[in-house]
Amino acid sequence: MDKGWIGSMEGFNWRDVKQFDQEEKFDLVWFISPEWDAKYISSGSEGCLSGFSIAGSTDSSLRNYTRMWEQIRSYKQQQGAAALANFKLNILGQIMDNFTVPDDLRSYVQLHKSPSDPVFYEVNHHCYGIVPALSNPAYYTSKLTSAVITSLMTGVPVIADAAFLSAYSMMEPAAVFEQQQGESELDAMFRAAAQPAEQVLRTRAAVQQLRRKMNARASSLILRWLLDKGLVPDAASDIAKIL
């Protein structure tokens, strides 16, 4: 088993997860804190969704914005400007100094440079979906895209093609907006936004359910790892409150 970067950390003892839950294949175990929902996201906001978001660094070696510009421009040429009247793409995160939005597309894009946590989570939460826009192949083999974390923490589905779902096997089809074979990212985005409100909310609820399920599994595994080492968390400790 390839231990990767986590296995080389100082003081880290690698243990085969199969002895705890008999799974042949397992995903990285981590907690997705639900506290952002109450702390940074306004309640009752599901009824006022608009646009999509790309969150993270605008470094072209990580995300392919050129592909997105080409898709928007092509759609505009084919369908006319009126077809994009309600389209909005939020770009949030570390916006590099050399990053620019083409002049003819600026009216469709809103930049949020190094937003505060409240702005980051509120803006994402009000979007229909999160677009990974990945350009680095390592995101499918050894790197974890922040799009997954953002999706789970905000309850907003990610636009996911077959390659994404294969690499991030924890992301259940019911909790994403699937990009079908032959579709562009923009095609999938428009199709997702055109769904009945009930289906959109059902998918968002599935994201939150997935987060709870992943947290429950993480809690179970970590507690069993601790008990296997003869460690019992103090009932009053912070870790006991999490587990």
Please provide a written account of the structure.
This protein is 41% helix and 8% strand. The chain has 243 residues and is α/β, with parallel strands linked by helices. The strands form two sheets. It has a four-stranded parallel sheet with strand order 3-2-1-4, with helices on both faces. α4 links the parallel β1 and β2. The chain is elongated and about 65 Å long. It starts with a helix and ends with a helix.
List keywords for this structure.
disordered N terminus, alpha/beta, 243 residues, 4-stranded parallel beta sheet, 10 helices, two-stranded parallel sheet
The span between the termini is: 27 Å
* Main sheet characteristics: 4 strands, parallel
Strand arrangement, major sheet = 3-2-1-4
Low-confidence stretches: 1-15, 24-29
Instruction: State the secondary-structure class.
Output: alpha/beta
Quick check: average pLDDT?
83
- Coarse shape: elongated
Task: Provide the fold topology.
Layout: H1 4-7, H2 18-21, H3 35-40, E1 52-55, H4 65-79, E2 89-93, E3 109-113, H5 117-125, E4 129-130, H6 146-154, E5 159-160, H7 162-167, E6 177-178, H8 185-193, H9 197-228, H10 238-242
Parallel strand pairs: 1-2, 1-4, 2-3, 5-6
Helix pairs in contact: 5-6, 6-9
